[in-house]
């Protein structure tokens, strides 16, 4: 991995002395985690787990898990995936050696995991020993017109609880195993995506805790953990004082929050946003720099309401804005504890966090 050296490293040291905000990275592979560490990341703020399932030796199991209605076949696919996940998480925990690691439970647009062409459908049918026409109908029933606003995040965790149970079991086992290897306690942070209501989080959390307790009993060891949620839908920010009853931490997902607040698809925005910025209708791309009166106001509200219920509650941000200097100044001003950004933006974020803290201090003195 790259290293910071010489004057640059000295400068970064000064920045670290000045800043209050912690800087974490979004990373889901060991290589990304190593890069993040070498740039000074103080933890992983978001490990997205959906990408982990696309490897050729895994995707077949994922498709079988989603497509079958046979409990024994589903259990077999889940067992295989759990082994992979446990190794994934041991790798991340070992690399981070006791620094905080937030693992987000599966948040796929479901359609990405469905068998698409005839060949994929035939493969699944052969593996499951099921009729291809029956599977085609099942696949079509699961297809959606707007997957990004559909069967995603905790919604999937609620309709197919065995998927989250598999991941939580893998996380708990990995934390126990990695703690033995690194010789330090590991407190995994488990994050639930796309929560809109307290009830969703309550149910998802209760299921996760049941799984963790089972692992603790099986292994005969102690395990501390935090269960928190993404705040990435306007309703979650608006009702954060209720959601906080069920959450040990909040992480603001400003990518989805921007998409849902503006009613503007994050995947299609490039078609006209540059023109909007050029004409001055928007000052900057809201998917890059926080819109303080819009999404920013929702984040501020989420912080205030959440901490009304839980004073001092741990809060961070893991959307793209976590690596944008102007947005970082805003996150400093509203009292977030950390920003999490892509590994290569970590040095920029450390500098921006220092600058924001110094400016705040100057204002206080003046
Ligand atoms: C977000 O929505 O801001 C986020 C960090 O999650 P993702 O980009 O994976 O949807
Ligand atoms: Mg999101």
How would you summarize what this structure contains?
Catalyzes the reversible phosphorylation of pyruvate and phosphate. The chain is α/β, with parallel strands linked by helices.
> Count of helical segments?
16
Largest sheet: 8 strands, parallel, barrel
Order of helices and strands: HEHEHHEHHHHEHEHHEHHHEHEH
Instruction: Quote the average pLDDT.
Output: 95
Instruction: Give the overall form.
Output: globular
State the helicity in percent bands: 40-55%
- Beta-strand percentage range: 5-15%
Give the termini distance in whole angstroms: 43 Å
Distinct ligands, ions and cofactors found in the model: phosphoenolpyruvate, magnesium ion
Helix/strand-derived category reads alpha/beta
| Cα Rg | 21 Å
Oligomer: single chain
